[in-house]
Amino acid sequence: MTPLPSTEPEQTRPRFPLEVVHQAARMYYLEEATQAEIASRLGVSRPTVSRLLTQARAAGIVRIEVVDPFEDESQALGERLAKALGLNAVRLSPVTHPATLGQDLAAPIAAAVRDMQLSAGDAVLISSGQTTYEVARAGMPPLPGIQLVPTVGGYADPLPRFQTNEITRLAAQASGAFPAFLFAQALPSAAMLATLREEPAFQHVTNLWGRARGALLGIGAAPTSRDFLARGIPAASEALTSAVGDVCLNFFDRDGAAIEFDGSDRLVRTSRDVLAAIPHAVGIAVGAQKAPSIVGAARGSLINELVTDVPTARAILDLFA
After folding, report:
1. Which residues pair with 150 in a beta bridge?
2. Are residues 39 and 129 both part of a single domain?
3. SS3 of 190, please?
4. What is the pLDDT of residue 64?
5. Distance CA 158, CA 238 (A)
6. How many whole angstroms separate alpha carbon 318 and alpha carbon 321?
7. Positions in the chain short of pLDDT 70
8. End-to-end Cα separation, the chain, in angstroms
9. Same domain, 100 and 33
10. Are the beta carbons of 52 and 20 closer than 8 angstroms?
11. CB 121 within 8 A of CB 145
12. So what's the pLDDT on residue 2?
């Protein structure tokens, strides 16, 4: 009678001797033998060969590397873009997709964070926006011992992309950092702002802004092109019609000059001066429609590094052609 297949969970099945695992892996990956040939030579079943190869990968005997064939080209493109924008560094993802944006940007963001040379207790700022929201969900590198800090108010905004405390919480949870929270609207009343400025918790966050070593900053598109803005931002304001984007609710024109509107002095935001003083202010944005926004952010010294993808980098360079 043929025995039934095992119903034991994979983790409870016996592991094979490493010399057998190595032999199967060598035959399969180096000699290019088929699994049927390996089964015959080792005197085992084909399913056993599959399990041997799985164990070889899990044990590190086999290491699979996927090499980007355009890596050298991408590096050269990033260097050209950094020079054109006057940035300290540009790191590129080969391509991004809205459904996997956080994962697609994870590698260049991790590289940017490594270059920050962070130590326990350092502060890193994180802004609101769709891109940083996706990064917080799926693209954060390890940040143990680091204080993660929101850059703008917006705790009561109905859209997740503008809920700064939630973005900070998600990013901290994914990275092992510990979060600070900012319980403030993006545009509070004058009376509320005066009260906030007396709050120790509010003062703690704004003090962290001034000593941050790094920042992960979404770059917003032109306000006139967006379906939604953060709650309280007057979308119909004539002043915003010439804005090509914003960083931390600091709106700017194509040359990077500040654009203010009636009431913008009450915005709870990390100021342009503070952003300009951060050693590693990393702008994060993708999409050809963001090209003018990225240029303006760089010209306004709101960012000094950039994470984007190859198509966006080419779109930006086309503006200089």
Report:
1. 126
2. no
3. helix
4. 76
5. 25
6. 5
7. 1-14, 66-72
8. 76
9. no
10. yes
11. yes
12. 40
Alpha carbon distance 304, 282 (integer Å): 6
Domain extent, residue 44, equals: 15-58
Domain count, the chain: 2
- Residues 183 and 47 occupy one common structural domain: no
* Contact assessment for residue 162 and residue 186, using Cβ atoms and an 8 Å cutoff: yes
* Nearest CA-CA partner of 243 in 261, 217, 230: 261
Of the candidates 166, 170, 171, the one whose C-alpha atom is nearest the C-alpha of residue 183 is 166
| pTM for this prediction | 0.79
Q: What residue has token string 């917006």?
A: 154
Q: What is the pLDDT of residues 149-180, one digit of tens each?
A: 999 999 888 899 999 999 999 999 999 999 99
- Residue in 38, 59, 40 with CA at minimum distance from that of residue 50: 38
The percent helix, strand, coil of the chain (3-state, each to 5) is 45, 10, 40
CB 147 within 8 A of CB 180: yes
Q: Enter the tokens of residue 13.
A: 């099945």
Residue tagged 């951060």 (tokens)? 278
What is the C-alpha R_g of the chain?
Answer: 25
pLDDT of residue 74: 85
Compute CA 228 distance to the chain's CA centroid, rounded to the nearest angstrom. Answer: 21
pLDDT digit string (tens) for 248-297? 999 999 999 999 999 999 999 999 999 999 999 999 999 999 999 999 99
Residue among 239, 262, 265 nearest 252 (CA): 239
How far is it, in rounded angstroms, from Cα 315 to Cα 294? 11
Same domain, 34 and 181: no
Looking at the structure, tell me whether residues 76 and 46 fall in a common domain: no
Scored b (16 or more CB within 10 A) or e, 268-290 reads: bbbebebbeebebbbbbbbbeeb
